[in-house]
Amino acid sequence: MTVKTPDKVVKHAAKFVIKPAPKKAPVSKTAQAMAKLSSSIAKLTERKHKINAEISALRDQRTALKAAPVAVAVPAAVASKAKVAAKAAPKNAGPVKTVKRAAKK
């Protein structure tokens, strides 16, 4: 004995049939591994560039900080040498001794 289903039920059931997923192009395992490695290398390279940029910024900052105290210290050193030279001028001790004193400080 066969059971007949009405046409409406068959048409309605056809709407809910699960369609198979579209097939992806076959990719070899080596190609997948190479793609994975390439993406990893790209991430690491990006991180390396970021770290190198940070290092160069810190170097620039360091040189700027080193240059600022030297610029301030040079006029102070010149002024102190001038004071020592002014004190030593009336005496006949000579400028050689005053330069040595300034160098030792």
Explain this structure to me?
The protein is mainly alpha-helical and 105 residues long. The chain has one domain. 75% of the residues lie in helices and 0% in strands. It has 3 helices and no strands. Helix 2 packs antiparallel against helix 3. The longest helix has 60 residues. The radius of gyration is 42 Å and the shape is rod-shaped. The termini are far apart. The model has no long low-confidence stretch (mean pLDDT 74).
What is the number of strand segments? 0
Residue share in β-strands: under 5%
Shape: rod-shaped
Q: What is the mean predicted local confidence, pLDDT?
A: 74
Secondary-structure element order, as H and E?
HHH
The main pleated sheet reads as: none
Helix/strand/pairing category: mainly alpha
> CA-to-CA gap between the ends?
118 Å
Count of alpha/pi helices: 3
List unreliable stretches of 5+ residues: none
Report helical residue fraction.
over 70%
* Total individual domains: 1
